[in-house]
Amino acid sequence: MFVNGKRRTNTHLLVVLFLPAILANAVQLEGLPKEWSVFGPVTADKTSLTTQQISKWQNIPEEISFSDETLKGRKVNLKNGKIDFFKLFHPQTKRYPASNVRNSAYLFTRINVKNKTELQVGAAADWWMAWYVNGQLAYSTMDKGNGTGNYSIVNHHFKLELRPGSNVICVEVKGGSKGWALWALGGSDYEAKAAAEHERVKQLE
What we know:
Layout: E1 2-3, E2 6-7, H1 11-25, E3 35-42, H2 51-55, E4 63-65, E5 70-72, E6 74-77, E7 82-84, H3 85-89, E8 104-113, E9 117-133, E10 136-140, E11 156-162, E12 165-175, E13 181-186, H4 187-204
Antiparallel strand pairs: 1-2, 3-6, 3-8, 4-5, 7-13, 8-12, 9-10, 9-11, 9-12, 9-13
């Protein structure tokens, strides 16, 4: 386009041309899958799975073998973004046993995406957790634990880097001295509740 004899670029046309490509890479997922396969309990005397072991699974495993036992997965739904492993593994026990400290539960799920995507996740664990994407460590609190007993999805915030196609997500959660649970939401599910959770936790501190 020429204005007053000078060539002028139509910037509005450029925006229209490039906007679809930008939107295609800015995919907002609704959240984490509701259904997970849970393996446990794995007692603290057993060695945790290594990154190399976890990376070998291109699909959700049906069973996991440890030194002296083989555990089959059970289907469990995240209810309001939470799984309580004490209630799951000890449904008839009312008092939390001290023997659960550092026992592990392994959770697996799968996320399918068309494009390379970053999934925002907010999570907490009573008391330790580690997140893996396609066998690669994405986030961990194994060194210091959750850091607070005011458990909330805003305790820890991180991204899961998803590749095009199928992505296997694995989470290891180790039990604490008073409980054993995971809280987690992702994508728009996390964003919808994050502000209210920040305020709730702030009032508890």
